[in-house]
């Protein structure tokens, strides 16, 4: 199920301008004035905004067909394209959560790879401000590897150690060994932190590696475990 969904999402690269190729995969999406999609699950008040981005790294500025090579639990391409697991892995996680009915607001942003443009728009937009009035944590599913809950982006703290520890503990209950990590660079959660320093803004490993290159790969075993955990765990309140 998870593997089929992931493979469907990575069928073509979707650099900025081609995100429309995956719009159909997002159920009941609402569209903002930038073109970002969001989905609301549950009645609220919503304390969590979960995010991923729909664009892949623009190594070539065209959408390409991908040939997938599976090597045990590792999926990569034939070396002629990006895989685009950054951030189709995050998209897989969010679609699994929506399908399972995990309450929250789910933001699917455009143009992350060319400067966080979609989330920057949202962070300064009135509609999003109203939407997020009860949100205390912005959690981006967009980080390499299998062990990080990011506390710092670009060297600046964006999430308290206390909240990162709570998330790690919730994952431990589902057999995932995640740890607070200070070495984040920048992803969509940072846009929201810049706009509101009260928010806990983190990103979480989704199991890709060598992103932004033709050697990119995805650890499917980790992604399946992660999808199971995020559906069943108690998300700590910020
Ligand atoms: Zn990314």
Descriptive notes:
This protein has 238 residues and is an alpha/beta fold. It has one domain: Zn peptidases (Aminopeptidase), CATH 3.40.630.10. 29% of the residues lie in helices and 21% in strands. The protein is built from 7 helices and 14 strands. The longest helix is centred in the middle third of the chain and has 16 residues. The two termini are 31 Å apart. The model has no long low-confidence stretch (mean pLDDT 97). The structure holds zinc ion. The site of zinc ion has 6 residues, from helix 2.
Summarize the structure.
The protein has helices at 2-9, 85-100, 117-123, 126-131, 161-172, 188-195, 220-232; strands at residues 30-31, 37-41, 48-53, 68-71, 74-77, 104-109, 137-140, 148-150, 152-153, 156-157, 179-181, 200-203, 208-209, 217-219. It is of the alpha/beta class. A hairpin with a 5-residue loop joins strand 1 and strand 2 (37-41).
Given as residue ranges, the uncertain stretches (5+ residues, pLDDT < 50) are none
Number of strands: 14
Bound molecules: zinc ion
- What is the total number of structural domains? 1
List the helices and strands and how they pair.
Layout: H1 2-9, E1 30-31, E2 37-41, E3 48-53, E4 68-71, E5 74-77, H2 85-100, E6 104-109, H3 117-123, H4 126-131, E7 137-140, E8 148-150, E9 152-153, E10 156-157, H5 161-172, E11 179-181, H6 188-195, E12 200-203, E13 208-209, E14 217-219, H7 220-232
Parallel strand pairs: 3-6, 3-7, 7-12, 8-11
Antiparallel strand pairs: 1-2, 2-6, 4-5, 5-14, 9-10, 13-14
């Amino acid at each position: 199920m998870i593997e089929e969904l992931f493979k469907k999402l990575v069928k073509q690269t979707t650099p900025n301008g081609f995100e429309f190729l995956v719009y159909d995969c997002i159920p009941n999406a609402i569209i903002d004035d930038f073109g970002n999609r969001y989905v609301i699950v549950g009645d609220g008040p919503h304390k969590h905004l979960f995010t991923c981005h729909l664009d892949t790294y623009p190594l070539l500025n065209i959408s390409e067909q991908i040939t997938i090579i599976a090597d045990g639990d590792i999926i990569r391409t034939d070396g002629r394209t990006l895989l685009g697991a950054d951030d189709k892995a995050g998209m897989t996680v969010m679609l699994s959560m929506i399908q399972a009915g995990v309450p929250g607001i789910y933001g699917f942003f455009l143009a992350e790879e060319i400067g966080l443009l979609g989330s920057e728009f949202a962070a300064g937009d009135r509609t999003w401000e109203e939407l997020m009035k009860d949100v205390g944590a912005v959690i981006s599913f967009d980080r390499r590897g299998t062990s990080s809950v990011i506390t710092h982006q670009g060297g600046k703290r964006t999430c308290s150690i206390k909240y990162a520890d709570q998330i790690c503990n919730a994952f431990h209950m589902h057999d995932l060994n995640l740890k607070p990590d200070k070495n984040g660079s920048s992803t969509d959660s940072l846009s929201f932190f810049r706009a509101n320093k009260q928010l806990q803004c983190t990103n979480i490993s989704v199991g890709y590696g060598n992103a932004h290159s033709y050697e990119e790969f995805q650890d499917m075993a980790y992604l399946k475990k992660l999808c199971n955990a995020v559906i069943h765990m108690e998300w700590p309140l910020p």
